[in-house]
Specification:
Helices cover 51% and strands 6% of the residues. The chain is mostly helical. It folds into 4 domains: 4-143, Beta Polymerase, domain 2 (2-Layer Sandwich); 146-233, Hydrophobic Seed Protein, CATH 1.10.110; 234-395, Hypothetical protein af1432 (Orthogonal Bundle), CATH 1.10.3210; 401-453, no CATH class. Strands 3-4-5-2-1-6-7 form a 7-stranded mixed sheet. It has a two-stranded parallel sheet with strand order 8-9. The longest helix has 16 residues, at 419-434. The chain is elongated, with a radius of gyration of 29 Å. The termini are far apart. Mean pLDDT is 88; it is low at 474-478.
Length: 487
């Protein structure tokens, strides 16, 4: 197979420069695999017999800041995938006492030495500048078979780098491949080695798997459970295995969460929505009361949000991603009955969950419904709530949309910064949520004057009562619906 026409000119130029200087050089790894499969490579790597110092002489405008023989060669290309090409000196196999990095790097002048130390056969191929493929371990055959198989002894490969346990499943999920039986068996027997790997590295592989489009992330989660490595990533999910629900669900909690994730992934949802779909009912096993068709799961969304927070923090996700996932899990359980909730109630719903989260919450609701076994993702009630949200979307729903702010309040009332200012703004917002036409500066300042005459304890009590009595999505109607649906 001649893939020379698929190799970008920037990569060919790097290969040609190395060859001109008397060294052998090849495009290697994932880019070669992707070209053979028919996918667009995300980046290109080059392996060469030249030492790092010799590479730098050939490419003076390069970066070398590691001990693994990798030099970043800048190409000045506007194409991001080839703007910097990593050029690495051929390396020999070494010992890995930390289950992640070689104890020392020993360079080689042979391509096969370099390919023999790679993880999987589909990643152990190389292509010359002319497009000739070197494939000493049968990567092309495994691509035809749609199989992920380690290069050589799988126990040895996983013992060198335990992150490969997750990478095997991630590649299979991403490419839509199966895992070779011997490789799969070695994942099972070496699963506990994953505990040696830093959470950040596990997180990165998990995130890539969650965004996979081949067999998909739900398939990947199932393989993680079958191999036993899930207990080192999200053991909380295992609590849902075999946990039946009630007459509103035909699947166990485990099956339901997987089906919700599968729907979210096939819908092209973001990473946060996919993770939230997987975790949205993670709190159900801990909240279950009773059994059979009348089992209940009261407050599972709050329990699940706390569990999701610990999971995201343990995997070292950023505060922004973690916060969004936790928020979506916490608020995924919302109810709406046509004719029972007013426009003010819809405004409060938007104010509570955040306008920026509305679309994602609806995606999770769809995933939740499909994961429950119902045929329709978007019923009439949901469509009507969408209509109501669009209808009130431009009404004031947050303090920043009020026709006054903290600075104006302090100037007008001649008070200093403090909790009192925030409480007054909160009460003013509650007033405006009821009647948007009250969002008038003159009216708000007059109302603020009345509130300012009250003590801070009185204001705090007033604000608390306002939230308790006016937040319709948390009022008696929703409590009754939750009771009815046993959630």
């Amino acid at each position: 197979m001649d893939i020379s026409k698929k190799i970008p000119s920037e990569v060919k130029d790097v290969l040609a420069a190395l060859e001109k200087a008397g060294f052998s050089a090849y495009a290697v790894g994932g880019a070669v695999r992707d070209i053979i499969i028919g996918r667009e490579p995300k980046d290109w790597d080059v392996a060469t017999s030249a030492s790092p110092e010799e590479i730098i002489k050939i490419f003076p405008d390069s970066v070398y800041e590691n001990s693994f023989g990798t030099v970043g060669v800048k190409t000045r290309s506007e194409n991001k995938s080839v703007s910097v090409i990593e050029v690495t000196t051929f390396r020999k196999e070494g010992k890995y006492t930390d289950f992640r990095h070689p104890d020392e790097v020993e360079f080689s002048d042979k391509l096969e030495d370099d390919l023999s130390r790679r993880d999987f056969t589909v990643n152990a191929m190389a292509a010359s500048s002319s497009g000739e493929i070197a494939d000493p371990f049968g990567g092309r055959d495994d691509i035809k078979k749609k199989t992920i198989r380690t290069v050589g002894d799988p126990d040895k490969r996983f013992g060198e780098d335990a992150l490969r346990l997750m990478r095997a499943i991630r590649f299979a999920a991403e490419l839509g491949f199966d895992i070779d039986p011997e490789t799969f068996s070695a994942i099972v027997s070496n699963a506990d080695l994953l505990s040696k790997i830093a959470e950040e590295r596990i997180r990165d592989e998990f995130a890539k798997m969650m965004m996979s489009e081949g067999a998909g992330p739900a398939w990947g989660i199932v393989q993680m459970e079958k191999t036993g490595i899930i207990k080192h990533v999200i053991p909380e999910l295992l609590e849902g295995i075999g946990v039946t629900q009630n007459k509103h669900h035909i699947y166990t909690v485990w099956e339901h969460n997987l089906r919700a994730l599968d729907y979210a992934a096939k819908s092209g949802a973001s990473l946060e929505v996919r993770i939230a779909s997987l975790l949205h009912d993670v709190g159900k096993p801990r909240s279950k009361a009773g059994d059979g068709p009348d089992a209940t799961f009261h407050s599972h969304e709050m329990i699940g949000a706390k569990m999701a927070k610990k999971i995201m923090e343990r995997l070292k996700f950023s505060g922004e991603i973690s916060g969004r996932v936790v928020h979506l899990v916490r608020h995924h359980l919302f109810y709406y009955n046509v004719g029972e909730v007013t426009e003010a109630g819809v405004r409060r719903f938007i104010s509570r969950v955040g306008e920026e989260n509305i679309d994602d919450l609806f995606k999770i609701r769809e995933a939740d419904r499909i994961g429950s076994g119902v045929p329709k993702a978007v019923p009439y009630k949901t469509r009507h709530l969408r209509f109501m949200i669009d209808k009130v979307r431009h009404d004031p729903i947050s303090p920043k949309m009020l026709k006054t702010d903290g600075v104006k309040l302090m100037e007008h009332l001649k008070i200093v910064p403090g909790p009192k200012v925030g409480m007054i703004l909160g009460i003013l917002l509650e007033d405006v949520l009821d009647e948007p036409n009250r969002n008038d500066e003159k009216h708000l300042l007059k109302k603020a004057e009345e509130l300012n005459k009250m003590s801070e304890p009185e204001l705090a009590d007033m604000a608390k009562k306002a939230r308790e009595t006016k937040l319709e999505f948390e009022a008696e109607e929703e409590k009754e619906m939750k009771k009815k649906h046993k959630v």
